[in-house]
Amino acid sequence: GAVVSQHPSWVICKSGTSVKIECRSLDFQATTMFWYRQFPKQSLMLMATSNEGSKATYEQGVEKDKFLINHASLTLSTLTVTSAHPEDSSFYICSSQVPSSYNSPLHFGNGTRLTVT
Amino acid sequence: GESVGLHLPTLSVQEGDNSIINCAYSNSASDYFIWYKQESGKGPQFIIDIRSNMDKRQGQRVTVLLNKTVKHLSLQIAATQPGDSAVYFCAGDSGGGADGLTFGKGTHLIIQP
After folding, report:
1. For residue B105, what pLDDT band results from cuts at 50, 70 and 90?
2. A104 near A98, Cβ under 8 Å?
3. In sequence order, what E strands does chain A have?
4. Which of the four pLDDT bands, split at 50, 70 and 90, describes residue A101?
5. Which of A79, A81, B21, B27 is deepest in the core (most CB within 10 A)?
6. Which residue in chain A has the smallest CA separation from B108?
């Protein structure tokens, strides 16, 4: 089945520093990847859609200059949290869909737990 | 956009009993629904999906029912096991997957021994 690998699984950083999270599709080519954020005991909220070779599209209220997304290849998308602050501490999850039929499920990575101190 | 919500935040069932988790949605244009299971500290795991041209779909120990008239879907888990303890999310899609999924709030399923 489709596998999405995310790295790192957790990271602790100091306030003001930047953190990069990688998302890879291991056995399929992902033209589109989706980045979600999840706060404790809450649902997943879509942050942005990453498109290979073009600019990402961001959901309303998500700062594109703070959450930099790069999707330079068909198997790798990265999310960089720039100048991180404690309120950015969250669980970040990427996902992608095997490009086949009209409707197919998203496959998720195992998430990255970001803690900003 | 899609709005998908769950009726109950927590559901406690006895091991061996059947579990039913409910979900309501508001966007009548949604044509594809998915149930995910999320264990603590992990990403969501696909369980089962259903397209809007169906009203029932069965998997291994799981059944999803879709009632388009009242915009409601449910996940039934038969003979609940300890390993079923997790948060369950329903998600809806009206854009063929191009726009990502909209997730409901989630139901925490607790299995009592």
Report:
1. confident
2. yes
3. 4-7, 10-13, 19-25, 32-38, 44-51, 57-58, 67-73, 76-81, 90-96, 107-108, 112-116
4. low
5. A79
6. A41
